[in-house]
Amino acid sequence: MFYRKYRKTILPALFLPLFLIVWELYIRIFHVPNYLLPGPAELANSMVKLFVSGDVMKHIRVTMEEILVGTAIGIVIGLVLGYIMAKIRFIERLIMPFVIIIQTAPKISLAPLFILWMGLGIESKAALVILVVSFPIMINEVSAIRSIEDNVYNLMKVLKASKWQTFCKIEVPYSIEMMLSGIKLALTQAMTGAVIGEMIGAKAGLGYLLTLGSETYDIKMILNAVILLSVIGLALYLISELIERKALYWKVIDKSVVG
User: Fold this and answer.
1) What tens digit of pLDDT does each residue of 179-211 get?
2) DSSP 8-class letter at 32
3) Which of 31, 79, 161, 173 is the one with CA 20 to 30 A from 99?
4) pTM score, two decimals?
C-alpha cells in the first residue's frame, strides 16, 4: 500500500544514485576528458559555485519571468479566442488557417523577428511564449465547448437561464478539465519558447547561459543550465498537475471509489 502511494517518488529516488554511479564509472573506465564530460561531483561543485556567487539567480529570475508572464497572457488569449471560435463558426474559418500557419512555422525562425521588433528584453521572449502557449489552450477550449450536448443548452433555455448563467454554470465547468490539460501542455512548450528566444538573442536567462557556454566551450555551464531548466520544467509540471488534481477533486474521488 505504501509503495503504491509513493512509487512515483520512490522509483526516481532509487534510479538517480544508480545513474550517477554509472556516469562516474563511465568517465573513469573510458578516461573521458574533463572538457567533454565532467564527473557528477565536479559538476555539482560548479553548480554550488554558481549559486554562491549569485550570478545564476538573475538568469533563473529572467527565464521564470518570461515563462510566467508569457504563459499568463497566452492562457487568456487562448481562452478568449477558443471560446469565440467555438461559438462563431465564421470566426473559426476566418482565423484558424492563419493560426495553423503561424504554429507550423519553426519557432526558431520566428524568434529573430520578435527580437528585431521588440529588442533583447523580456518582451520578445514573452511574445514567443505567448505564441506557443495560446494554441493548445485555444484548441482545447474549442473542443471543450463543442463537446457540450445540445440537450444541456436546451435545458438551460427551458429554465430561462441568461447567457451569463449558461456560461458560468455550464460552459465553465464543462471546459475546466480540458483547459487544465491544455495549461499543463502549454507550460512545457512555454519553457521551450523562452529558451529558444534567449538562445537567439538575450542579455540574460538560462538560454543565454547555454549560448555563452557553447561559445566559450564551457561544458559545465551548459550542463548546469540544462539541469536548471529540467528542474524548473519538472517543477512547473508538478505544480500544474497539483492544481489539476485539486480542481478536479471529484475525479480523484471517483477513481478511489472504483479502485
Assistant:
1) 888 888 888 888 888 888 888 888 888 888 998
2) -
3) 173
4) 0.82
